[in-house]
Design brief:
single chain; 201 residues; alpha/beta; Maf protein; 6-stranded mixed sheet; 5 helices; 32% helix
Length: 201
Amino acid sequence: MLDARESLLLGTRNPGKIYEIKLILGDLAFNFSSLNEFPHVAVGEENEDTYAGNAIAKARFYAAATGVTALADDSGLEVEALGGAPGVISARYAGEHATDADRRQLLLSELAKTGSDNRRARFVCAIAIASVAGEVLNLSEGICEGAITPAPRGSSGFGYDPLFVPDGYDQTFGELSDEIKNRISHRARALLKVREFLTDR
């Protein structure tokens, strides 16, 4: 059972993710913290072959390491012409120390090598909440379908956002306003389900 008086750890140090999560959950009656308040805690490993598996593993790891009920996510970009790559290794696609720009460049390079005109892609996000005892309290998933642009556009967001145009829009996630992105993105859709879980308890 998750009590609204409890603290809820956001299992990330990524400022973009923290910002997006707090936009949707920040007004709820929880004491939110992030890994930035726990500098001694290592980064949870992502050794599973599914987003849900990685999200659960990280939530359990962070809850055990901090003594705080933890929320963790795993997300990725799946490009049809690349057989669903980079998928669950999206964050590590260009190597451990690569920048977002490096990953975007590699993706465009690999896509060009296919010679395919198929630009279809989708973002997937899984979010898990785990107790200090390791119990999975909730698991939510969100998907956003769209297409890859020939070159990055926009400076908002992070990761592959400047390359992804969601269906029904002409702008990338790097160009769209926070208001729109945090209504339609994969993470927003998963977080809205998390919000329902937290408010229905």
